User: What shape does this take?
Amino acid sequence: MSVVVYTESEEGTFKKIAQEAVSYAKGIADKMGAPVTAVAINGGDTSELGKYGADKVLNVSNDKLSKFNAEAYADAVAQAAKKEGAKVVVVSSSANSKYMAPLLAVNLDAGYVSNVTELPESTEPFKVKHSVFTNKAFSITEFKTDVKVIGLAKNAYGVKENEAAGTAEDFAPELSSEDFSVDVVSVDKATDKVTIADAEIVVSGGRGLKGPENWEMIEEMADILGAATACSKPVSDMGWRPHSEHVGQTGKPVAANLYIAIGISGAIQHLAGINASKTKVVINNDPEAPFFKNADYGIVGDAFEVVPKLNEKLKEFKAQNG
Assistant: This one.
Protein backbone atom coordinates (compact mmCIF):
# COMPACT_ATOMS: atom_id res chain seq x y z
CA MET A 1 0.00 0.00 0.00
CA SER A 2 1.32 3.46 -0.89
CA VAL A 3 0.20 7.06 -1.21
CA VAL A 4 -0.08 7.84 -4.93
CA VAL A 5 0.41 11.38 -6.25
CA TYR A 6 -0.23 12.66 -9.77
CA THR A 7 2.56 15.01 -10.86
CA GLU A 8 1.73 17.57 -13.53
CA SER A 9 4.29 18.49 -16.17
CA GLU A 10 4.47 20.62 -19.27
CA GLU A 11 6.75 19.87 -22.20
CA GLY A 12 8.76 17.44 -20.10
CA THR A 13 9.22 19.79 -17.13
CA PHE A 14 7.48 19.25 -13.81
CA LYS A 15 5.51 22.21 -12.52
CA LYS A 16 5.93 23.71 -9.06
CA ILE A 17 2.51 22.34 -8.15
CA ALA A 18 3.86 18.83 -8.85
CA GLN A 19 6.72 19.38 -6.41
CA GLU A 20 4.27 20.67 -3.79
CA ALA A 21 1.92 17.72 -4.36
CA VAL A 22 4.76 15.23 -3.82
CA SER A 23 5.86 17.11 -0.69
CA TYR A 24 2.31 16.90 0.66
CA ALA A 25 1.96 13.23 -0.26
CA LYS A 26 5.16 12.55 1.67
CA GLY A 27 3.66 14.28 4.71
CA ILE A 28 0.60 12.01 4.56
CA ALA A 29 2.71 8.92 3.90
CA ASP A 30 4.80 9.59 7.01
CA LYS A 31 1.61 9.74 9.09
CA MET A 32 0.44 6.44 7.62
CA GLY A 33 3.79 4.67 7.56
CA ALA A 34 3.54 4.16 3.79
CA PRO A 35 5.75 4.89 0.76
CA VAL A 36 5.02 7.53 -1.89
CA THR A 37 4.48 6.60 -5.53
CA ALA A 38 4.40 9.41 -8.07
CA VAL A 39 2.64 9.06 -11.42
CA ALA A 40 4.32 11.00 -14.22
CA ILE A 41 2.67 11.21 -17.65
CA ASN A 42 5.16 12.12 -20.38
CA GLY A 43 7.12 13.87 -17.68
CA GLY A 44 10.65 13.54 -19.05
CA ASP A 45 13.34 13.33 -16.38
CA THR A 46 11.61 12.04 -13.24
CA SER A 47 14.70 11.94 -11.02
CA GLU A 48 13.87 15.29 -9.36
CA LEU A 49 10.66 13.88 -7.82
CA GLY A 50 12.74 11.83 -5.38
CA LYS A 51 14.04 15.07 -3.92
CA TYR A 52 10.56 15.87 -2.58
CA GLY A 53 9.74 12.44 -1.18
CA ALA A 54 8.78 10.09 -4.02
CA ASP A 55 10.03 6.59 -3.25
CA LYS A 56 8.97 5.35 -6.67
CA VAL A 57 7.90 6.96 -9.94
CA LEU A 58 5.58 5.24 -12.40
CA ASN A 59 6.63 6.74 -15.71
CA VAL A 60 3.90 6.74 -18.37
CA SER A 61 5.15 7.44 -21.89
CA ASN A 62 2.30 7.53 -24.37
CA ASP A 63 1.93 9.76 -27.44
CA LYS A 64 -1.85 9.61 -27.08
CA LEU A 65 -1.42 11.49 -23.80
CA SER A 66 0.71 14.28 -25.25
CA LYS A 67 -2.20 16.68 -24.67
CA PHE A 68 -4.20 16.69 -21.46
CA ASN A 69 -7.37 14.63 -21.68
CA ALA A 70 -9.28 14.38 -18.38
CA GLU A 71 -10.89 11.00 -19.04
CA ALA A 72 -7.70 9.34 -20.28
CA TYR A 73 -5.53 10.86 -17.55
CA ALA A 74 -8.04 9.85 -14.86
CA ASP A 75 -8.04 6.29 -16.20
CA ALA A 76 -4.23 6.15 -16.24
CA VAL A 77 -3.87 7.48 -12.68
CA ALA A 78 -6.65 5.19 -11.43
CA GLN A 79 -4.90 2.14 -12.87
CA ALA A 80 -1.66 3.23 -11.20
CA ALA A 81 -3.47 3.67 -7.86
CA LYS A 82 -5.02 0.20 -8.13
CA LYS A 83 -1.66 -1.31 -9.04
CA GLU A 84 -0.12 0.23 -5.91
CA GLY A 85 -3.07 -0.59 -3.67
CA ALA A 86 -3.34 3.09 -2.79
CA LYS A 87 -5.84 4.26 -0.21
CA VAL A 88 -4.91 7.92 -0.73
CA VAL A 89 -4.39 9.69 -4.07
CA VAL A 90 -3.13 13.29 -4.11
CA VAL A 91 -3.65 15.72 -6.98
CA SER A 92 -3.13 19.46 -7.21
CA SER A 93 -5.92 22.03 -7.50
CA SER A 94 -4.90 23.19 -10.96
CA ALA A 95 -7.60 23.67 -13.60
CA ASN A 96 -6.68 20.35 -15.25
CA SER A 97 -6.63 18.39 -12.01
CA LYS A 98 -9.94 19.86 -10.84
CA TYR A 99 -11.43 18.59 -14.09
CA MET A 100 -9.78 15.19 -13.76
CA ALA A 101 -10.23 14.52 -10.02
CA PRO A 102 -14.00 13.78 -9.99
CA LEU A 103 -13.51 11.29 -12.85
CA LEU A 104 -10.63 9.74 -10.95
CA ALA A 105 -12.78 9.46 -7.82
CA VAL A 106 -15.52 7.69 -9.79
CA ASN A 107 -12.97 5.24 -11.24
CA LEU A 108 -11.72 4.42 -7.75
CA ASP A 109 -15.10 4.53 -6.00
CA ALA A 110 -13.48 7.15 -3.80
CA GLY A 111 -14.45 10.28 -1.92
CA TYR A 112 -13.00 13.55 -3.20
CA VAL A 113 -12.23 16.74 -1.29
CA SER A 114 -10.77 19.77 -3.09
CA ASN A 115 -8.85 22.84 -1.86
CA VAL A 116 -7.26 20.97 1.06
CA THR A 117 -4.94 23.27 2.97
CA GLU A 118 -3.21 21.09 5.57
CA LEU A 119 -2.12 17.56 6.35
CA PRO A 120 -4.95 15.40 7.75
CA GLU A 121 -5.57 16.16 11.42
CA SER A 122 -6.40 12.47 11.75
CA THR A 123 -6.02 9.40 9.55
CA GLU A 124 -8.30 7.17 11.64
CA PRO A 125 -10.86 8.57 11.00
CA PHE A 126 -9.44 10.39 7.99
CA LYS A 127 -10.20 14.12 8.34
CA VAL A 128 -8.95 17.03 6.24
CA LYS A 129 -9.25 20.80 6.43
CA HIS A 130 -10.22 22.60 3.22
CA SER A 131 -11.32 26.06 2.18
CA VAL A 132 -14.97 26.70 1.25
CA PHE A 133 -17.21 29.61 0.19
CA THR A 134 -14.56 31.06 -2.17
CA ASN A 135 -11.91 30.81 0.52
CA LYS A 136 -13.90 32.77 3.10
CA ALA A 137 -14.14 29.84 5.53
CA PHE A 138 -12.70 26.42 6.33
CA SER A 139 -14.40 23.07 6.76
CA ILE A 140 -13.23 19.86 8.42
CA THR A 141 -14.43 16.92 6.33
CA GLU A 142 -14.24 13.25 7.20
CA PHE A 143 -13.82 10.66 4.45
CA LYS A 144 -16.14 7.67 4.73
CA THR A 145 -14.73 5.85 1.69
CA ASP A 146 -11.96 3.30 1.65
CA VAL A 147 -10.05 5.25 -1.02
CA LYS A 148 -9.57 9.01 -0.73
CA VAL A 149 -8.77 11.56 -3.45
CA ILE A 150 -7.30 14.80 -2.09
CA GLY A 151 -7.04 18.00 -4.11
CA LEU A 152 -4.28 20.15 -2.58
CA ALA A 153 -4.83 23.91 -2.65
CA LYS A 154 -2.08 25.88 -4.39
CA ASN A 155 0.70 27.22 -2.18
CA ALA A 156 -1.06 25.79 0.87
CA TYR A 157 1.62 23.30 1.93
CA GLY A 158 4.74 24.54 0.17
CA VAL A 159 7.58 22.73 -1.55
CA LYS A 160 9.65 20.73 0.94
CA GLU A 161 12.73 18.72 0.17
CA ASN A 162 12.70 15.24 1.67
CA GLU A 163 15.14 13.01 -0.16
CA ALA A 164 13.84 9.59 -1.22
CA ALA A 165 14.88 6.96 -3.75
CA GLY A 166 12.70 8.16 -6.64
CA THR A 167 13.21 4.84 -8.43
CA ALA A 168 11.71 5.02 -11.93
CA GLU A 169 9.54 2.23 -13.29
CA ASP A 170 7.84 2.17 -16.70
CA PHE A 171 4.08 1.84 -16.51
CA ALA A 172 1.75 1.30 -19.47
CA PRO A 173 -1.93 1.70 -18.54
CA GLU A 174 -4.49 0.04 -20.79
CA LEU A 175 -6.46 2.88 -22.33
CA SER A 176 -9.66 2.31 -24.28
CA SER A 177 -11.20 4.28 -27.13
CA GLU A 178 -13.82 5.53 -24.65
CA ASP A 179 -11.05 7.47 -22.88
CA PHE A 180 -10.68 9.59 -26.01
CA SER A 181 -14.29 10.52 -26.69
CA VAL A 182 -13.18 14.17 -26.67
CA ASP A 183 -10.33 15.40 -28.86
CA VAL A 184 -8.04 18.24 -27.85
CA VAL A 185 -7.73 20.32 -31.02
CA SER A 186 -5.30 22.96 -29.76
CA VAL A 187 -3.87 24.48 -26.59
CA ASP A 188 -3.54 28.27 -26.41
CA LYS A 189 -0.83 29.33 -24.00
CA ALA A 190 -0.40 32.63 -22.23
CA THR A 191 2.79 34.47 -23.10
CA ASP A 192 3.71 35.48 -19.53
CA LYS A 193 7.26 34.77 -18.47
CA VAL A 194 5.69 33.33 -15.33
CA THR A 195 2.20 31.83 -15.59
CA ILE A 196 -0.49 32.94 -13.17
CA ALA A 197 -1.18 29.33 -12.24
CA ASP A 198 2.40 28.67 -11.12
CA ALA A 199 3.33 32.12 -9.82
CA GLU A 200 4.27 32.71 -6.19
CA ILE A 201 3.97 36.47 -6.79
CA VAL A 202 1.33 38.18 -8.93
CA VAL A 203 1.30 41.88 -9.84
CA SER A 204 -2.15 42.97 -10.97
CA GLY A 205 -3.48 46.21 -12.44
CA GLY A 206 -6.92 47.76 -12.75
CA ARG A 207 -8.72 50.68 -14.35
CA GLY A 208 -6.77 53.04 -12.12
CA LEU A 209 -3.90 52.72 -14.59
CA LYS A 210 -6.05 54.67 -17.08
CA GLY A 211 -4.88 52.85 -20.21
CA PRO A 212 -2.83 49.96 -21.67
CA GLU A 213 0.04 52.33 -22.44
CA ASN A 214 0.73 52.61 -18.70
CA TRP A 215 1.29 48.89 -18.12
CA GLU A 216 5.05 49.20 -18.48
CA MET A 217 5.51 49.92 -14.78
CA ILE A 218 3.42 46.83 -13.91
CA GLU A 219 5.55 44.66 -16.18
CA GLU A 220 8.71 46.22 -14.76
CA MET A 221 7.68 45.34 -11.20
CA ALA A 222 6.79 41.81 -12.27
CA ASP A 223 10.15 41.43 -13.99
CA ILE A 224 12.02 42.61 -10.87
CA LEU A 225 10.08 40.25 -8.59
CA GLY A 226 9.96 37.29 -11.00
CA ALA A 227 6.18 37.58 -10.89
CA ALA A 228 3.25 37.03 -13.24
CA THR A 229 1.16 39.96 -14.46
CA ALA A 230 -2.62 40.00 -14.09
CA CYS A 231 -5.56 42.35 -14.35
CA SER A 232 -9.13 42.95 -13.24
CA LYS A 233 -12.15 42.01 -15.37
CA PRO A 234 -12.92 45.55 -16.64
CA VAL A 235 -9.35 45.83 -17.93
CA SER A 236 -9.57 42.64 -19.96
CA ASP A 237 -13.11 43.53 -21.13
CA MET A 238 -11.80 46.83 -22.52
CA GLY A 239 -9.02 45.02 -24.33
CA TRP A 240 -6.21 46.66 -22.40
CA ARG A 241 -4.82 43.25 -21.44
CA PRO A 242 -5.46 39.71 -22.72
CA HIS A 243 -8.25 37.67 -21.13
CA SER A 244 -5.62 35.13 -20.05
CA GLU A 245 -4.55 37.69 -17.40
CA HIS A 246 -8.03 38.27 -15.98
CA VAL A 247 -8.13 37.06 -12.37
CA GLY A 248 -11.07 36.88 -10.01
CA GLN A 249 -14.15 34.76 -9.44
CA THR A 250 -15.07 34.91 -13.16
CA GLY A 251 -11.46 34.67 -14.30
CA LYS A 252 -8.46 32.72 -13.10
CA PRO A 253 -8.29 32.06 -9.35
CA VAL A 254 -5.07 33.18 -7.65
CA ALA A 255 -3.48 31.56 -4.62
CA ALA A 256 -0.12 33.34 -4.66
CA ASN A 257 2.17 33.90 -1.72
CA LEU A 258 2.09 37.62 -2.58
CA TYR A 259 -0.62 39.45 -4.56
CA ILE A 260 -0.04 43.12 -5.39
CA ALA A 261 -3.11 45.02 -6.60
CA ILE A 262 -2.48 48.38 -8.26
CA GLY A 263 -5.39 50.64 -9.18
CA ILE A 264 -7.98 47.96 -8.39
CA SER A 265 -10.90 49.04 -6.21
CA GLY A 266 -11.75 45.50 -5.07
CA ALA A 267 -15.11 44.33 -6.37
CA ILE A 268 -16.58 41.30 -4.59
CA GLN A 269 -15.96 39.06 -7.61
CA HIS A 270 -12.30 40.06 -7.77
CA LEU A 271 -11.75 39.55 -4.06
CA ALA A 272 -13.40 36.11 -4.19
CA GLY A 273 -10.92 35.00 -6.84
CA ILE A 274 -7.75 36.16 -5.09
CA ASN A 275 -8.72 35.64 -1.45
CA ALA A 276 -6.63 32.48 -1.14
CA SER A 277 -3.43 34.51 -1.62
CA LYS A 278 -1.41 34.62 1.58
CA THR A 279 -0.33 38.26 1.56
CA LYS A 280 -2.23 41.01 -0.26
CA VAL A 281 -0.78 44.46 -0.92
CA VAL A 282 -2.96 47.26 -2.31
CA ILE A 283 -1.92 50.54 -3.95
CA ASN A 284 -4.84 52.89 -4.59
CA ASN A 285 -5.47 56.64 -4.40
CA ASP A 286 -8.94 56.11 -2.89
CA PRO A 287 -8.71 55.50 0.86
CA GLU A 288 -12.30 54.14 0.79
CA ALA A 289 -11.54 51.46 -1.81
CA PRO A 290 -13.05 48.14 -0.61
CA PHE A 291 -9.75 46.34 -1.26
CA PHE A 292 -8.14 48.02 1.76
CA LYS A 293 -10.47 46.12 4.11
CA ASN A 294 -9.10 42.84 2.72
CA ALA A 295 -5.46 43.86 2.39
CA ASP A 296 -2.59 42.92 4.67
CA TYR A 297 -0.72 46.07 3.61
CA GLY A 298 -1.99 49.15 1.84
CA ILE A 299 -0.59 52.33 0.32
CA VAL A 300 -2.92 55.26 -0.27
CA GLY A 301 -1.41 57.20 -3.13
CA ASP A 302 -1.23 57.81 -6.87
CA ALA A 303 0.04 54.67 -8.59
CA PHE A 304 1.93 56.80 -11.11
CA GLU A 305 3.98 58.24 -8.26
CA VAL A 306 4.16 55.23 -5.92
CA VAL A 307 4.94 52.39 -8.33
CA PRO A 308 7.99 53.95 -10.09
CA LYS A 309 9.52 54.81 -6.70
CA LEU A 310 8.76 51.32 -5.41
CA ASN A 311 10.34 49.78 -8.50
CA GLU A 312 13.52 51.77 -7.94
CA LYS A 313 13.72 50.60 -4.32
CA LEU A 314 13.10 47.00 -5.39
CA LYS A 315 15.88 47.23 -7.98
CA GLU A 316 18.26 48.64 -5.37
CA PHE A 317 17.36 45.85 -2.94
CA LYS A 318 17.80 43.20 -5.63
CA ALA A 319 21.17 44.62 -6.63
CA GLN A 320 22.38 44.57 -3.03
CA ASN A 321 21.05 41.13 -2.16
CA GLY A 322 21.31 39.29 -5.48
In short: The mean pLDDT is 92.
